[in-house]
UniProtKB/TrEMBL annotation:
Pfam families for this protein: DUF309 (PF03745)
Alphabetical UniProt keywords: Signal
Signal sequence region: 1-16
Protein name: Uncharacterized protein
Taxonomic superkingdom: Eukaryota
Length: 254
């Protein structure tokens, strides 16, 4: 699996400060992000991690379920179908607690699958709370776990494909912001500096909003303040999960 830094080596200088939406060369194989071990350490029971430049932001998915469920019985009675309903209604924060409760008692390979979905939920929570880099990291790690299952068809495969498309969409739109600002244009050359910038220029800013089309399909739309385009703003369908408890119990490594 390519590292986050290695992926940036594929990028080229932007000719001007004008924002340009990049079309992926291979939409079927969007970039996957991993945590570079020399730059990032994730502590299971902490909510923050620290990079070399002392820039902190919330990333870890391990918020204690004790903060949500009043007793052990509440966590024990969590159902996967409830977690799916919460995910599809975009209550990603609450969904996380249900998935973590399921993950704590699951065995492989379902444990890996639940973990992947859990990280996707946390990724979307980050995205809609303007932690764009955290969103990319969590969605990337979640996608890796989904791909580890090697699904070839079915609801989990469809979910994996939609997460992949969303991650590629976020990655491409973040490149625009990382490469060009109002007073600065940098070459994304895979350096430590360029990596730090990716996802950081617009931290805390509203870049994405939700929009329904005429067919009642919900999209994530990239339209930051001051952004101008002659065409429609880039968008991607909001991923939905159409799996049931039965699908989960039948899941195996392929």
């Amino acid at each position: 699996m390519a590292s986050f830094l290695h992926l940036l080596l594929l990028l080229r200088p932007f000719p001007s400060k004008k924002l340009i939406f990049l079309t992926p060369q291979n939409p079927q194989s969007p970039p996957i992000f991993s945590s570079p071990s020399r730059n990032l350490k994730i502590y299971p029971d902490e909510k923050l991690f620290k990079r070399k430049n002392n820039f902190n932001f919330s990333l870890s998915y391990r918020f204690s379920t004790e903060d949500f469920f009043e007793d052990d019985e509440g966590a024990e009675n969590c159902r996967f179908d409830e977690a799916v309903l919460l995910f599809n209604s975009r209550d990603y924060h609450k969904c996380h607690y249900f998935l973590e409760a399921l993950w704590n008692k699951a065995e492989e390979p379902r444990r890996t699958l639940i973990h992947g979905i859990l990280q996707c939920a946390v990724g979307f929570h980050h995205l809609f709370n303007q932690n764009h880099r955290g969103a990319m990291m969590e969605l990337g790690e979640g996608l890796c776990k989904l791909r580890k299952m090697n699904f070839q068809s079915g609801p989990f495969y469809q979910f994996e494909q939609e997460i992949s498309a969303t991650l590629d969409f976020i990655y491409q739109t973040q490149l625009e912001l990382a490469a060009c600002a109002d007073d600065l244009c940098l070459t994304m050359d895979g350096s430590e500096r360029s990596y730090q910038l990716l996802g950081s220029y617009a931290a805390g800013q509203h870049l994405y909003h939700l929009e329904r089309d005429s067919n009642d399909i919900l999209y994530i739309v990239f339209f930051p303040e001051g952004w101008h385009s002659s065409g429609k703003p880039p968008r991607v369908k909001v991923p939905t999960l159409h799996a049931t408890e039965e699908h989960l119990m039948e899941s195996e490594y392929n």
